[in-house]
């Protein structure tokens, strides 16, 4: 009988300097200039353009250390515009989904595509992907192709780091000796899943490059390190051990937490922030078709302040598993009032939805509980989500979130919401 099993082939596509690239789409004046995007509260650099990297700016380098470069080197710094990045990510993923019957979105700026069994020139197909994404939404991407996810990641690394690949590296088009030569030049720390600490342990063991790791004995690696790293060895040999996830599994916990733009002393401000964060968590919960059975709330003051430190948390069960924002907020505020203490300068509050389960999965309904809701409550949540999806986030929200939020995250260098707020659409000006 003929063996019809497909040979696995994976493509890993990711956006180059994604946050910076999103900003450049709507502000072409940033092209060719050193640009950094800053973390929450404008704390440190979380994305850097190639020009910023050339200046020696490191990932997660604090803003105060590089601020002087705005004058000396023309550095442009921008606050994180998460709404813009998420929308551009969704657009990019929709385009890439058209190139494969199966897509696994791995992060906001990268996805795996299943190319197994395609009777086409994969390198040419990858170049078409790059061209289409660049033409349709203006984002430059790199494409790596390999017989396993780890090899696809490695190929993507090569495509970005070595200009002669012109953004596409297809390891399946090379013989094994050519692939080995490429692996010899890749530091073991650049292999997917090998972090800084493991890198040092491997180098102490004499494994310096990706090729060294490929040639290591999987049984010895498993004994000395872990089964996960042994699986990586097999992946580097072209044996696909990591399964393809067409649909991301529902999250088992949903956390929303932010540091405040300035210290918060008073309970009303903390209540407002808790309401806002729980509202966001509830939207994520409904988006994956789940309900939560318990809520955790935590607050924390600044551990580096000279003032007294306080960190508290509490977990409260719900009488009935729910996705109703109002019920979740009510319980979260009850928890907050339990743990709040006067006299402390709080820096952060957060909420966690736990014991998450698919909605309608055999849960018993308590007709007498405070959280009991009928079909009208579900319809209300659906309408709220639909309006906010169509008209922009927070168009409809609970009054408890407030309209003036003095505690809100600091984003002094924020660019407009070019694609998610009709009032901030980019305008073409006639000369």
Please provide a written account of the structure:
The chain has helices spanning 18-26, 50-54, 63-66, 69-72, 82-97, 122-137, 149-161, 176-184, 196-204, 210-215, 218-224, 227-236, 267-287, 325-339, 375-391, and strands at residues 10-15, 35-38, 45-48, 76-79, 103-107, 110-114, 141-146, 168-170, 254-264, 290-301, 311-322, 346-358. It has 431 residues and is of the alpha+beta class. The strands form three sheets. The protein has a five-stranded mixed sheet with strand order 5-6-1-7-8. β5 and β6 (110-114) form a beta hairpin. The protein is globular. The N and C termini lie far apart (70 Å).
Approximate helicity band? 25-40%
Q: What's the mean pLDDT score?
A: 86
The SSE string, one letter per element, is EHEEHHHEHEEHEHEHHHHHEHEEHEH
Total number of β-strand segments?
12
